From TrEMBL:
Stretches assigned to the AAA+ ATPase domain: 160-305
Recorded coiled-coil stretches: none
Keywords: ATP-binding, Hydrolase, Nucleotide-binding, Protease, Serine protease
GO MF terms, alphabetically ordered: ATP binding; ATP hydrolysis activity; ATP-dependent peptidase activity; serine-type endopeptidase activity; single-stranded DNA binding
Record field: catalytic activity: Hydrolysis of proteins in presence of ATP
The protein's name: endopeptidase La
InterPro entries, alphabetized: AAA+_ATPase (IPR003593), ATPase_AAA_core (IPR003959), Lon_Prtase (IPR027065), P-loop_NTPase (IPR027417)
GO cellular component, one term: mitochondrial matrix
UniProt-listed GO biological process terms: chaperone-mediated protein complex assembly; mitochondrion organization; protein quality control for misfolded or incompletely synthesized proteins
Protein source organism: Trieres chinensis (Marine centric diatom)
């Protein structure tokens, strides 16, 4: 009886041992296969690298950043020093580490700024008048002020240092006028609304210690336009918010001040960026809600609403033809339909 029980136990242990050996053999086979593939892939990378057919990921990144910097006209000394130190740090980091991704993101933004690149400005008064008349009906007083502004810029050789604020009720064409001014001057156009904005980081950027940190709208504008002298429209500036995250109006003071914005320092980049070549324009419905120090930096242009004859003329000359084009109709088609 004892021998029978012992035989049963030994048989069970033998079966368990056999299963363990089978599992271990399968695991070892998979591990050795994975190690073999990894070893062969590393050998292949080394061979390609030696033959010059392929570069290491980090080397390719550093080469890309160097190439971007060569395309820049003039990189400030402080910014160049930061970029060089970050490139040196990137070459020593493991590419799977968190610090590598943070440094890579930082270098992406530093090299994306069009350092020293500007677009050629046009100060042709006649062309500006044609563009304004093409895009807007009436508003003769406003157009005259803008043409005077361009004429003064022609005499000075630049329009920088002036901040125009278009004030008036909704729907009178404040935003489209700013776009027409950019077209007339030959500048790139960038618009962002600050209505209800209460986070100062939207203007000055987040610090790099935060996950998902990004630069502010000013730096994003330079990257998207690809030039250091765009026209930036700050829309709804009279509706700026304010909460525990800071006062955006105070942050805008530095950006809009011609005596300070030549060394604007974004929290994310932490290097001086020259914003003095940017032409700022603002729109507002109610000037009384704009903080005094901010309003003092602007030259206000008031726009009134349209009367009934002007609205009819706008509908006939602008809205109806536009609607017909968007509907796939033409004026000739409409005339043929009327005749039939």
């Amino acid at each position: 009886m004892r021998l029978h029980k012992a035989l049963v136990l030994i048989s069970k242990e033998r079966e368990v041992s056999r299963l363990q050996q089978e599992i271990s053999a399968k695991v070892e086979e998979k591990m050795s296969d994975a190690q073999r593939k990894y070893f062969l892939n590393e050998q292949l990378k080394s061979i390609k690298k030696e033959l010059g057919m392929e570069k290491d990921d980090k080397e390719a990144l550093i080469t890309k950043y160097r190439k971007k910097l060569k395309d820049c006209v003039e990189v400030p000394e402080e910014a160049m020093g930061v970029i060089d130190s970050e490139l040196e740090k990137l070459s020593t980091l493991e590419k799977n580490s968190t610090e590598f991704n943070v440094t890579r993101s930082y270098l992406d933004w530093l090299t994306a700024i069009p350092w020293g690149k500007t677009t050629d400005e046009s100060f042709e008064i006649a062309d500006a008048r044609k563009i304004l008349d093409r895009d807007h009906y009436g508003l003769d007083d406003v157009k005259d002020i803008i043409l005077q502004f361009i004429a003064v810029g022609k005499l000075r050789g630049t329009v920088q240092g002036k901040i125009l604020c278009l004030a008036g009720p909704p729907g009178v064409g404040k935003t489209s006028i700013a776009s027409s001014v950019a077209d007339a001057l030959g500048r790139k156009f960038f618009r962002f609304s600050v209505g209800g904005l209460g986070d100062v980081s939207e203007i000055k950027g987040h610090r790099r210690t935060y996950v998902g940190a990004m630069p502010g709208k000013m730096v994003q504008c330079l990257k998207s336009t690809g030039t250091m002298n765009p026209l930036i429209l700050i829309d709804e500036i009279d509706k700026l918010g304010r909460d525990y995250r800071g006062d955006p109006a105070s942050a805008l003071l530095e950006v809009l001040d011609p005596n300070q914005n030549d060394a604007f320092r974004d929290h994310f980049l932490d290097v001086p960026v020259d914003m003095s070549k940017v032409l700022f324009m603002c729109t507002a419905n109610d000037l009384s809600t704009i903080p005094g120090p901010l309003l003092d930096r602007m030259e206000v242009i008031s726009l009134s609403g349209y009367d009934l004859p002007e609205k009819i003329a706008i509908a006939e000359q602008y809205l109806v033809p536009k609607s017909m084009r968007e509907s796939g109709l033409t004026v000739d088609d409409e005339e043929e339909q009327e005749e039939t």
